[in-house]
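[audit] Reproducing an earlier prediction to check determinism. Same input, same settings, fresh worker. If the tokens differ from the archived copy the diff job will pick it up downstream; this log only records the rerun itself.
[audit] input (109 residues):
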Amino acid sequence: MSKIYAGARGPAGALVYVDGKPLRPRWDLRNHSPDGFEWGYQGSGPAQLALAICCDHLNDDQRALRVYQDVKWELIANLAGNDWRISSDTIQAAIDLVEKLAATDRPYP
């Protein structure tokens, strides 16, 4: 069953949900952005979002820690606008790509 991740910017800031429930920021693993999530560029807010999404999707913190920065470049930095929705299939495709590139020792991006 595919999960749906959705983000929206509003008066309360950038909020992200997975299947309608707030996405856990995972500050316990890395605290890139104490102000929370962001997207559409390659900064600290997008790094926090990539980490949180990878952790939730993979349910494997160590694997998520290996891939999230590259997932930030591949997926999160390219989310445009104030609202977006992506499926876990899209997230898995990004993870598969960055792991394939890592296995060939090709730098990303």
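[audit] rerun output stored. Observation attached for the diff report: The chain has three helices and four strands.
[audit] end
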